[in-house]
Amino acid sequence: MRTPRQAARVAVLDPAGSVFMFRYDNEEVGVHWAMPGGGLDPGETPLQGAVREVREETGWTDLELDGTVLCLWEHDFTRAGVPVRQHEHIFLAYGPRRDLADDLAAAHAADGILHGLWWSPEDLSGDTEPLWPPQLPELLAAVRQDGPPATPVDLGYVPNGSVAGR
Length: 166
Fold this sequence. Notes:
The chain contains five helices and nine strands, in the order ββββαββαβαβαβα. It is α/β, with parallel strands linked by helices. It has a single domain, classed as Alpha-Beta Complex (Nucleoside Triphosphate Pyrophosphohydrolase), CATH 3.90.79.10. The strands form two sheets. It has a five-stranded mixed β-sheet with strand order 4-1-6-5-9, covered by helices on one side. The protein has a four-stranded mixed β-sheet with strand order 7-2-3-8. Strand 2 and strand 3 form a beta hairpin. The radius of gyration is 15 Å and the shape is globular. It starts with a strand and ends with a helix. Keywords: Hydrolase, Magnesium. InterPro entries: Nudix_hydrolase, NUDIX_hydrolase-like_dom_sf, NUDIX_hydrolase_CS, NUDIX_hydrolase_dom.
């Protein structure tokens, strides 16, 4: 049985359409790429959690999140030895391309973050490394073409094989 976990992530896009991603290493699903974010604190809304998480993981305090949700999805993994089924809200934010602020190495090591990288649209669609969610290249291509979605795209439950195998 997996423990339900609520989480929020942020797709931070630079003016050229690149997205900032972290490379994670997880005991159950291995190495994969995901946007800044994580579990919600008690009483926190998904938007509040997204703002807090992006600040804690990047040091960026000036991003404007207007509440636009790109997508919703659920997936399984093990966090700190506990099997979870994580339900995520992925928000959109826009900002300048830049490096991480401050010294975040200790916090990143505790979260299994190996390093961060800006991914261009071409890099994102051509890469074969696992992405969370795996549909991210298509979702961001639609944003670049049509603008943010009027309602969040609901990806539903995505099994690990889909995540790892893209």
